[in-house]
Amino acid sequence: MLGFYNYSVILTYLGLASSVFGITQVIEVYKGQGNYSIAFLCLLLSGLCDLFDGRVARMKKNRTEREKIFGIQIDSLCDLVCFGVFPGILGYSFGFNYGLGLISAIVIVLAAVIRLGYFNTVEQERQQATNEKRHEYRGLPVTTVAIILPIIYIAKGLVGKDLFPFIFQVCLIIIGLLFLIKKFRVRKPQLLGVILLILIGFLIVIGFMKGQLN
User: Fold this and answer.
1) What domains appear along the chain, each with residue ranges and CATH number?
2) pLDDT means per 10 residues in the chain (214 residues)?
3) Angle at CA of residue 206, ends 45 and 17, nearest 5°
């Protein structure tokens, strides 16, 4: 089968599978069987997988140049689905709201495509020039939606069900624009990112069990 198969891509594929399952949960909501809380938990899980997949890949010794390039490409392709298409579907599922549902979906996916295409180019050049780990990003990394969007979802009870779709869709547009602003710098998340994802996931589960999130 086409591809490079080793443990260095397992987490990347698991993150993709989680997001695809989350997308099915959004679709099933309209059939009365899906659940938004499960969908956002899937987004969180995809974020956790993305935090560690690069570290796992670097643990593999004697990676060929083709394996490294394949890893960069497959990671970005999966990121597009997990942190571009998935959020776009979430935003659209909350309704048009004067066209914002469609606009926000287009903006977040298009911005993710542009950012990931640009990142692929500069990251490949960087890895050819140095083995030094990246410490910060220019522009908002696409993976940050795994933290930002669940936080917005948890705050749904504070803003009200009627206002929440509008706020969520506006945030998607803002996030998409931040993907592309080079002057906006973000330090690469380490342990704090993991703690935040786990904490947010815990809050979603608690809210779901109490019937406050759906």
Assistant:
1) 7-209 (1.20.120)
2) 85 96 94 90 94 82 84 92 97 89 97 93 72 76 93 88 92 96 78 80 81 74
3) 20
